[in-house]
Design a protein that fits this description.
Layout: H1 3-19, H2 26-36, H3 43-61, H4 63-72, H5 77-108, H6 111-132, H7 147-157, H8 167-178, H9 182-208, H10 217-244, H11 248-267
């Protein structure tokens, strides 16, 4: 196995784990960094592995909550409402994604689109955070969320189909704009990531099962473990961060990172290519 290729897999696994739950776009970072380091592998298989590693990090961090849900579903009204809310929030992006996934990947999966979405999303985060200073949240607990709250978050998640927008960013900011408290929107985004990523991973496994081979085991193992470890770190750190801070630093990061890509492309300094 090529050591350099394993090192690249380690880098991309860490990037997936760190960025999946931050409002800075994991897909966008993977496209840009993968293009920059010229990562060549069975891309879809590797992507499945690191996505699974990241989602397992959330399941592990909230293992008590998910165990309680599994063991009390159908018998506990609060648990039933939580599950229904996740289902309602899951549906909009799932439907739109199934209908337009080919067109999105064909036309939007490139570093320039990612950069533009990062910058635009950064300014939107700044606006929403500024707005939050003057408008108190209406929902202060995930268990207090209503079905229409979940639906709004689910509709906001549709924006994440554009690479560079960020699934977590769309759901968190959409929730905050609707009236969810910052930590509530963040936690619900984490919970929503589980059915979304499990569904996406299952779909990709069934669709691309023929691509799996023994030669991919090394890359899959490195990417999976690094994505899990980085994802666990990101979830823990973000929850502590939003307890006392806001998302403004991430907005500035998006603007600077996306702006640098656009500048290097415009000036011809970096030959960004479509993935």
């Amino acid at each position: 196995m090529d050591i350099l290729l394993l090192f690249k897999a380690l880098i991309l696994g860490i990037i997936e784990g760190l960025t999946e739950f931050l409002p800075i776009s994991s897909t966008g970072h993977l496209i840009v960094v993968g293009d920059l380091i010229n990562f060549k592998s069975n891309g879809k298989v590797f992507e499945i592995a690191i996505q699974l590693g990241a989602v397992l990090a959330v399941i592990f961090e909230y293992r008590r909550r998910f165990t309680h849900v599994v063991t009390h579903i159908g018998r506990d009204k609060q648990v039933n409402r939580f599950v229904i809310n996740l289902a309602v929030a899951f549906i909009p992006a799932a439907v739109v994604g199934l209908i337009f996934s080919k067109q999105i990947k064909l036309w939007l999966f490139n570093p320039i689109t990612v950069a533009a979405a990062l910058v635009i999303g950064g300014f939107i985060i700044l606006w929403i955070e500024r707005r939050q200073r003057f408008i108190p949240p209406k929902v202060t607990s995930v268990d207090d969320m209503r079905m229409r709250d979940a639906l709004v978050v689910g509709i906001a998640q549709i924006c994440a189909l554009v690479p560079g927008t960020s699934r977590s960013g769309s759901t968190i900011m959409g929730g905050m704009l609707w009236g969810l408290e910052r930590k509530v929107a963040t936690e619900f985004s984490f919970f929503l990531a589980v059915p979304v990523m499990i569904a996406a991973t299952t779909y990709d496994v069934l669709k691309h099962f023929h691509l799996f081979s023994a030669q991919d085991i090394g890359l899959i193992a490195v990417g999976f473990v690094s994505a899990f470890a980085a994802g666990l770190l990101a979830v823990k750190a973000l929850l502590k961060f939003v307890a006392t801070k806001n998302y403004v630093p991430f907005a500035y990061y998006r603007i600077i990172f996306g702006g640098l890509i656009l500048i290097t492309w415009w000036m011809g300094w970096v030959n960004w290519t479509e993935m």
